[in-house]
Amino acid sequence: MKKLLFYILLFCFTTNLLATNHILTTSKEDGFYRTYCQKIVHCSNRTANEVIDDFIGQFRGNPEVLFEWALKGLGRQNDQERNEVLLVLKQATFDPETGIGHIYCDIETGIKNFRNIDIESKVTKEIKEDGSSHILVDIFHSNLFLKKAFGTFVIYPQEDGTQLFAITINVKFNWFFDIFITKKRYKNLIEWRTEGFVNNLKTEAERREEEL
Length: 212
Fold this sequence. Notes:
By secondary structure, this protein is α+β, with helices and mostly antiparallel strands. It has helices spanning 2-19, 45-61, 175-180, 183-211; strands at residues 23-29, 32-41, 85-95, 100-109, 113-127, 133-139, 146-157, 163-173.
């Protein structure tokens, strides 16, 4: 009887979790911080893919434009804790033959500033048989800031015509920042920006859908 009750409760919990429109979690394992965020977006799959394709194109060639919509409101804040580490974009280049892009930036911290950091990355997109779109961002080049980072953004079509946006970010900092950045600091620096990024894509997709 106790086992039956346990499985009933487990089933109810799992069903409720899968049905949740919004999830935001952060954990740390094997030196990696992992943030997951999902939201339901009221737009067609075509509109959702157009938005993410625009993001990829601008990320590769003109990332400064992203601060007007995809990264809007995610820079410097009035909250000092959220300004403890800031990335200041300087230049971006993209090699179409290799598909590898370079973002050159300065990293400002309350202790020390790091100049001309090169973040080497590659963005790929694949559409699965179930109609979901999977976008992978991989950081190749280790630097003073990051030891390793990668993330996935997935668009899952829903039966009611909406889309589920789901993003997972995995970050492993280099030794200096790994000591400096606690889980609380990570949440102040990255977790809320992850959610803000998804909110911005959701807003843009729903805006475009309304204009159709």
